[in-house]
Amino acid sequence: MAITRTGAATVRAPKSSLANRLVWRAHRAGLGWLLKAALSFWHAEDKSRRRAIAAQLGADARAVHVAESLRRDGWAMATAFSDPTLLEELRAAGEARVRRAEELARTQSLTHKSFWVRLLDEDLVEGRFPTDSVFVRFATQAGIVQLLTRYLGELPILTDVLLTLSRPSDADLGYSQLWHRDYDDTRTLKVFVYLTDVCDTLDGPFTFLPGTLSDRIGITLRSHLPDSKVFARINSGDAKEMLGPALTVFVCQTSRCLHMGSRIAAGHSRLMYTATYVPAPMTYPAYAPKFRPAGLLEPAERLLLGL
Asked: Structure pTM?
């Protein structure tokens, strides 16, 4: 599904970071649903368009089954929904960035995570990725969009794409190496693609508690939890390490499932692509679309990209 309407993209004026922080805390406290409901009422026309597109897209039996699995368990395999040609193009583009990892590490915009290098920062022009990039085209392909649309009942917003090279670090575990949920929205869905083999724990696999187990832990006072806090309540053997060869694709509702990763052992590394989706409308006041049209886009494409 290539997704464009012609015309300039809407850019929202920056707003208070305090307002964003308050929204983040509302989501974390389990109150984001109230804000989402109010905004959905205000943006009823947009919601209606997105649901109409979902009805037009339909879904085959496989998408229906996997969407139900995602709804029940909070995660699902998605390799079968990915175009093999796009997967190979994504891998080639990722490998090219790895060869420049040291150069890109010196220029990345966010450096607080010493255990990984962000490899797409140079693609951003005024904060936006071009829509003809393979890193965007993979996230907007028909199979993936149909699966997520079936799950949500409406066309989502693609909010970000990310390519990270995780490497060993001598620092204490921190940030996303600890157990956490994502608070991008009430329902945050992330599609992950391994671009290197992740065969065992040494490779730093994405590790999570399936939905029903995460539900048992519920809201926590700390946003990032050490193993000791999580496994005091859940058997450590119930945590799922997502292992697989390069080009394994999976989706997780990271707003529901407690998760962590990038615990890389010496001599190992992990290259992973991530695309993030949420249901409209965006709840964060300072949100601005992360994508800029490279050519004409259809109306559904613009909606998917938040333009």
From this structure: 0.91
